[in-house]
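Why do we care about 3D structure at all? Because function follows from shape, and shape follows, mostly, from sequence. That is the central idea of this module. The next example makes it concrete: a single protein chain, its amino acid sequence, and then its structure expressed as tokens.
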Amino acid sequence: MRIVVTGGAGFIGSHLAQALLGEGHEVCVIDDLSNGNKHFLAGALSNRRFQFVEGSILDRPLLEKLLENTQVVYHLAAVLGVKNTVENPLKVIEGNIDGTRNVLELAWKKQIKVVFTSTSEIYGKNDELPFSEQSDRVLGPPQINRWCYATAKALDEHMCFAYSDKGLPVTIVRLFNTYGPRQLRLSMEVSYPNLSLLH
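And the structure:
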């Protein structure tokens, strides 16, 4: 298949892109390098089935062009990091919501399967463990910038569910405090010594 990975030069996306190449797929990565690093893809750059595009998913004409003849898009691109959330909430809100809208609208137009990466942050302060897909969201007040990332990602999930209801094949994966090789430590970010996926 031809697969597009948004945010594919990032910590998780670069591993995914290389794994997909290893399975024999044609892989296109789009990344604006705000959190990613092209060097993470050094092993893939010489592969004839790999394409790297430095650009933003907010650039709708570019994204539309890249999605031509694509069967699956893994949407990992996101504006993240505690520093961004605290200091520039508008960047976080617009970057995540508008970017995901572009991916979903174009995928719907072309009937491309979407795998969307969400976050455990959507649960907020809920302490009813273990979480499930149906667990409540418990957030602080909207005037506290800390909650803008969780809210934006939850709205992204709402859009995914809405397009799924229309017939678009969509899978949502909620990542929980991932860590490992190639992880960039964003300013003010906290790392946690566990890795799990919502099942």
